[in-house]
Amino acid sequence: MAEPAARSCCLGWDFSTQQVKVVAVDADLNIFYEDSVHFDRDLPEFGTQGGVHVHEDGLTVTSPVLMWVQALDIILEKMKALGFDFSQILALSGAGQQHGSIYWKTGASQTLTSLSPEIPLHQQLEACFSISNSPVWMDSSTTAQCRQLEAAMGGAQALSCLTGSRAYERFTGNQIAKIYQQNPEAYSQTERISLVSSFAASLFLGSYSPIDYSDGSGMNLLQIHDKVWSQACLSACAPHLGEKLGPPVPSCSVVGNISPYYIQHYGFHPGCKVVAFTGDNPASLAGMRLEEGDIAVSLGTSDTLFLWLQEPMPSLEGHIFCNPVDSQHYMALLCFKNGSLMRERIRDESASCSWSEFSKALQTTEMGNGGNLGFYFDVMEITPEITGRHRFNADNCEVSAFPRDVEIRALIEGQFMAKRIHAEGLGYQVMPKTKILATGGASHNRDILQVLADVFAAPVYVMDTASSACVGSAYQAFYGLAAEADVSFSEVVKLAPHPRLAATPTPGAAQVYEALLPKYAKLEQRILSQTRGPPK
Ligand SMILES: O=C(CO)[C@@H](O)[C@H](O)CF
C-alpha cells in the first residue's frame, strides 16, 4: 500500500469580526488552500451586520458565540467535501479578534472533552455557554467599569505601566466586570472565560486552551513584564477570576494534540499539534514578519501602526502587548482615526478629486514644505485627542489656509510626523536596520510612500497583507513545532515571500525632518492645551 503523504503543512485560522478564514501553508511557506465563511452572508439566520449586533443603547456590541462555532463546522465540512487531506497537517494555530470574551457554562468541559464525531460541533455545544452573545471589541458600554478599574489601580498611568494600556472600554477585564455586576447569575454559572483566540483553540483542542501572553495583554489584567495575571486587577473586576481564566502561556506554546473529534470525523493525524492562538494584530505582526526596529503602517480608514519594541514606555495612548514571536520583547499598536477619509477629503478639496493631481502636488513641493505644518482632524482624533484643522507657517503663526499644493504636503507630512512622534513616545526608535512595511489602500500611492520614507528616514516596503493574521497564524504553527528545538521565528519563516521595496529616503531627508519633528510636537502640544484648556 502506498505510504501516506508525509505530513507537510500547517493551518492558520482567523476568527475575525466578519468571518472565519483558513489558510493551508506548505513546508516552503506557500499558501495552497484558503477559504472563508462570512457571517452575514453564509449564516444569515444570526442576523448580524458586519458580524455583530449593535444593541439599542448604541454602545453594547456583541456576536453570537454559536455563529462562530457553526462557521467552523461549515469551513471544515467544505474542506472535507473537496477532499482536503487532513492527515498531512503537522500543526495548526490561529488568531481571533482581540478583547472579545466567551463564557463557558459550568459542566461544558465534559462536553468539550467527549465530542461525538457524528454530530456537528454547534449542535453539541449548544448548551455550553452561560452568555450566548459575546461582547466584542466594538463594544463601548463599560466606561464606568474602566473608571472603577483605574481608581482601584492608582490611576490610568499606573494601570498602563502594569498592563500596557490605560483602561479601555473594549478591554476584556472591564467587559467581565460589567457581566459580573449586571448578570451575576450568569457569571456564577461560568466555569471558564476565554478570549476569541483561546476559545477557537479550545474547539480544536477539545478542552480549555490557555490564553496567550500577547492577546492576554489586551485585557487590562495581565502584567506585561512578569507575564502573570495582576491579582489586584483580577480582584477589581470580578471574584475568582484567576480560576476562570487559567494561567497564561507564551504565544508559541504547543497547548496539546488535536481533539479525537477531528481525527475521527475529518481524518486529522493523531499527532497534529495545536499551537496557542493569539490576537489578530499580534498574528498580523507575525504574518508581516516584523523584526526588531521595524514598523508596519496600515494606511486604511483609520491608520494603525504596529511597532516592535524592546523597552516599552506605556502611556495614556496606544497599547503595549507582549510580542507574539519573542517573549522578551513587546509590540505596540497606535491608532490614528483621521486616515484615508481625511486624505480623500483633502484630495477632493485641493486636488480636484484626483489622486494623480494629489501625487503631482507631492512631487512639486519640497521636503519640509517651506516650514508650513498642518494638523487635519475632521473627526475627533484618538492620537492625540484633537479635532479640527490647524495650520502654521514657518514662523509658527497660525494661518487660515494654505495654497493647494502646500495643503496636500502639509497633510501627508503631518500625518507621518505624528506617527513618528507618537511611536517614539511609546519607546520606539528608528534603527539603521529599520524597515517600514506599508499596507492598506494608500500604500498603492508611491508619492505618499516617498513622504513616509523621508519622514522616518527609512526604506518603505509593501506586501499583500489581506490574510496577514491567518498567514501569521500558520507561521506560528510552524514556529510552535520548531520552538521546542530553540529555532528562532525569523529562521522558521525565512522562505516566506519577501516584501517589495517601494521607496527609499531622499538624500537630506533626515536633516529636514529632524529639524521639523520637534516643531511639530510643540505645536501639537499647543493645540492640545488650547482645546483642553489650561492644566488644572
Ligand atoms: O481592538 C482592536 C485592537 O485593540 C481591533 O484591532 C480588534 O483586534 C479587531 F478585531
From TrEMBL:
Catalytic reaction annotation: D-xylulose + ATP = D-xylulose 5-phosphate + ADP + H(+)
Boundaries of every Carbohydrate kinase FGGY C-terminal domain copy: 296-480
GO CC list: cytosol
InterPro entries: ATPase_NBD, Carb_kinase_FGGY, D-XK_euk, FGGY_C, FGGY_N
Source species, domain of life: Eukaryota
Keywords: ATP-binding, Carbohydrate metabolism, Kinase, Nucleotide-binding, Transferase, Xylose metabolism
The UniProt record lists the keyword tRNA processing: no
EC number: 2.7.1.17
Gene Ontology annotations of biological process type: D-xylose metabolic process; xylulose metabolic process
Record flagged with keyword Zinc: no
Recorded GO MF terms: ATP binding; D-xylulokinase activity
Domain Carbohydrate kinase FGGY N-terminal: 133-287
Family assignment from sequence similarity: Belongs to the FGGY kinase family.
Function summary: Phosphorylates D-xylulose to produce D-xylulose 5-phosphate, a molecule that may play an important role in the regulation of glucose metabolism and lipogenesis.
Subunit organization: Monomer.
Name of the protein described by the UniProt record: Xylulose kinase
Gene source species: Orycteropus afer afer
Name of encoding gene: XYLB
